[in-house]
TrEMBL record:
Reactions it catalyzes: 1-(2-carboxyphenylamino)-1-deoxy-D-ribulose 5-phosphate + H(+) = (1S,2R)-1-C-(indol-3-yl)glycerol 3-phosphate + CO2 + H2O
Pathway: Amino-acid biosynthesis; L-tryptophan biosynthesis; L-tryptophan from chorismate: step 4/5
Family stated for the protein in its record: Belongs to the TrpC family.
High-level lineage: Bacteria, Pseudomonadati, Bacteroidota, Cytophagia, Cytophagales
Protein name: Indole-3-glycerol phosphate synthase
Species per Swiss-Prot/TrEMBL record: Siphonobacter aquaeclarae
Molecular function per GO: indole-3-glycerol-phosphate synthase activity; phosphoribosylanthranilate isomerase activity
Length: 266
């Protein structure tokens, strides 16, 4: 059993417990459930946008603890101030050290910045959670979902006003997972089997992604030159977390990158 399979197995048990604690009807009564969402796709495409989706992540299965010394409200507010086009907040606790409070605090601290719930969606209930907690976007990971599940979950998110970022790792996942209700498609440059990272994955897949969605590159992005290369290829979103979070001041790390981006032609 690989790490993704372990995560999904644990997530299904976690969701079953969450359903027992709070019903879907109760989630719909949360204050944030009725709010108007912020569009991540529009933010990424806006003139002058940095294109950066800055992530708050305490730890990961491959890296262990990355940074558990900072507060989510401080980091995400600093991200927004530094020019982040969107925020990504991990809500998986077992493997990534996140939780619902992190997303809710990020939402409260950044009312106008689009917020992605970064988690492993395996049940429609989690989409209701995302809406109730104040997310604007959900992540669907093709590697752990069937095409039918992707279609169903994307349609559910769209019906709630949420945007959908679908993550793929290769051509096969991309081809089988396309559905009209996707707003963004992200190419994860990290190989799930070897954990090796290469932006060649993004460069290889870019022409196969429909122009009807916003193209996002994920993982292994650390330099302005790399982002320029990917932007030229057609990407408008760049999800970066570890390279910011491994520093004492993630917001400053983003600010430095945005400054460097202004020195290169995008």
């Amino acid at each position: 059993m690989n790490i993704l399979e372990k995560i999904v197995l644990h997530k299904k048990k976690e969701v079953a417990q969450a359903k027992a604690n709070i019903s879907a009807k109760e989630l719909e009564l949360f204050p944030a459930f009725g709010r108007k969402v912020n569009s991540l796709s529009a933010s990424l495409l806006a003139e002058g946008s940095s294109g950066i989706i800055a992530e708050f992540k305490r730890k990961s299965p491959s890296k262990g603890t990355i940074n558990d010394k900072v507060l989510v409200q401080d980091v995400t507010a600093a991200y927004s101030a530094a020019g982040a086009a969107g925020l990504s907040v991990l809500t998986d606790e077992e493997f990534f050290g996140g939780n619902a409070d992190d997303l809710q605090l990020a939402r409260k601290s950044n009312p106008r910045t689009p917020v992605l719930r970064k988690d492993f969606i395996v049940d429609e209930y989690q989409i209701l959670e995302a809406k109730a907690w104040g997310a604007d976007v959900i992540l669907l990971i093709a590697a752990c979902l069937t095409p039918e599940e992707i279609r169903k979950y994307a349609a559910t998110a769209r019906s709630l006003g949420l945007e959908v970022l679908m993550e793929v790792h290769d051509e096969e996942e991309l081809t089988r997972s396309l559905t009209p209700d996707l707003n963004l498609i992200g190419v994860n440059n990290r190989n799930l089997k070897t954990f090796e990272v290469s932006i060649e994955t993004s460069l290889r897949l870019v022409e196969q992604i429909p122009d009807t969605v916003v193209k996002v590159s994920e993982s292994g992005l650390s330099s302005a030159e790399t982002i320029r290369q990917l932007h030229t290829a057609g990407y408008r979103g760049f999800l970066i977390g570890e390279n910011f979070m491994k520093t004492p001041h993630p917001g400053q790390a983003l600010s430095d990158l945005v400054g460097a981006l202004q020195q290169v032609t995008i």
